[in-house]
Automatic annotation (TrEMBL):
It holds the Pfam family GerE. Residues 151-216 form the HTH luxR-type domain. This is DNA-binding response regulator. GO terms for biological process: phosphorelay signal transduction system; regulation of DNA-templated transcription. The modification 4-aspartylphosphate is found at D57. GO terms for molecular function: DNA binding.
């Protein structure tokens, strides 16, 4: 029997933390291992509890969720801990920096319980949770205020096909959609994704999206 997915809940609203805990503990194969009311506590608990997934509110006192995410994701001892960022609004100014900091994805706080549970499972499996349309709008919004794309030396080693796959990932397409778009098998797509993760030293698909846009390979407004 597979071990339960261990979840740390970080949110400054006690009522919301309690609601998340009830949902998680009621879900087979999932358990809430702790609660944090601010970002500093979230980092400390991540280090002591070593959860599989941290549900991270991006707006918290003492230390905000973005910085807490950065500290967790940059800690070699927490390399197996994944962060799922939560935000109230899909244009929250902290979401893009949170992805840059290492979050494996994000969900809106008004997501359905089914979507939240599914998101936790996906994150725990090593994948990422990226709502395609919201992700594209976020990246478009912040790219307007960021520095011009800079060439990323790591992209030089990518094949033409890998670059095509990377662009489609950046535009929010799933493996199945990429398979259909490029007329290649699903196992082949998975092979390309695995190669991209290895060559670009990326934790997951969320990091591939960041690399694609920051390098200029993908651009806001490009067709998906």
């Amino acid at each position: 029997m597979a071990e339960a997915v261990r979840v740390l809940i970080a949110d400054d609203q006690a009522l919301l933390r309690g609601s998340f805990r009830v949902l998680i503990d009621a879900t087979p194969g999932m358990t809430a291992v702790g609660e944090a009311g601010d970002g500093a506590a979230a980092v400390e608990l991540a280090r002591s509890l070593r959860p599989d997934v941290v549900l991270m509110d991006l707006r918290m006192p003492v230390l905000d969720g973005m910085e807490a995410t950065r500290r967790i994701c940059s800690d070699p001892e927490l390399s197996r801990v994944r962060v799922l960022a939560l935000t109230m609004f899909d244009m929250d100014e902290y979401v893009y920096p949170a992805l840059q900091a290492g979050a494996s994805g994000f969900l809106l706080k008004d997501a359905s319980p089914t979507d939240l549970v599914a998101g936790i499972r996906v994150i725990a499996s090593g994948e990422s949770v990226l709502a395609p349309t919201v992700t594209r709008r976020l990246i478009a919004n912040f790219s307007r205020h960021s520095e011009p794309p800079r060439p990323v030396r790591r992209l030089v080693g990518l094949t033409k096909r890998e670059q095509e796959v990377l662009v489609l990932i950046a535009n929010g397409l799933s493996n199945a959609e990429i398979s259909e778009r490029l007329v290649i098998s699903l196992p082949t797509v998975k092979t390309h994704v695995g190669s991209l993760l290895a060559k670009l030293h990326a934790r997951d698909r969320a990091q591939l999206v960041i690399i694609a846009y920051e390098s200029g390979l993908a651009e806001p407004g490009m067709p998906g």
